[in-house]
Design a protein that fits this description.
With 139 residues, the chain is mainly beta. The chain is built from two helices and ten strands. The longest helix is centred in the N-terminal third of the chain and has 7 residues. It starts with 6 loop residues before the first strand and ends with a strand.
C-alpha cells in the first residue's frame, strides 16, 4: 500500500500498555530514539502489536511542530532531536526536512515560524509530536 504520509520511520516495539479502549505503544527507532504512540486497543490486537514487533511510525507533516530546544512543561511526550537538512518556503507555508537518528521527518509549518525560529539547513531543532498523532503500521 502506498501512503501520502511522508513521515514513516521504522522501529521496534519495546512496550505496550493497554487500557479499556486505548493503548500506549513505546517504539525504539532504528537510531535509538524512543517515541510513544497512542492507538486503540483494537488496533493493537488487529495488527498483532507486541513487544519486539517491527513497526513503522507514521506522522503527517502537519502534525510535526518544531522548537529550537527541548521543551519543558508540555504534555507532548515525543521530542526528537535533529538537524534541519532543507527548508522550502512558499508564500505562507514552509516544508522543513529534519534528519533525526533513525530517519527523517518533514514538518509543514508557517513561513513566519521558519523566520521567527531562524531555521536553515544545519539548524538544530527538536521535532514535537503528540502521541495521539502517531499511527503505527506493521509489515
Amino acid at each position: 500500500m502506498s501512503l501520502s504520509i511522508r513521515n514513516q520511520i521504522a522501529g521496534t516495539v519495546t512496550a505496550v500498555t493497554t487500557g479499556e479502549a486505548m493503548a500506549t505503544v513505546k517504539v525504539r527507532l532504528e537510531g535509538g530514539q524512543d517515541i510513544t504512540a497512542a492507538i486503540t486497543v483494537d488496533a493493537v490486537k488487529d495488527l498483532g502489536i507486541a513487544e519486539g514487533s517491527a513497526v513503522k511510525a507514521l506522522v503527517k507533516a502537519t502534525e510535526v511542530a518544531l522548537a529550537t530546544a527541548a521543551v519543558d512543561g508540555i504534555s507532548i511526550r515525543n521530542q526528537l532531536a535533529g538537524t534541519v537538512s532543507d527548508v522550502a518556503t512558499g508564500g505562507a507555508m514552509a516544508s522543513v526536512k529534519v534528519d533525526v537518528n533513525g530517519g527523517g521527518l518533514t514538518a509543514a509549518i508557517t513561513k513566519d515560524a521558519v523566520e521567527a525560529l531562524g531555521l536553515a539547513a544545519g539548524s538544530s531543532v527538536v521535532a514535537l509530536i503528540k502521541s495521539t498523532e502517531i499511527s503505527l503500521a506493521t509489515a
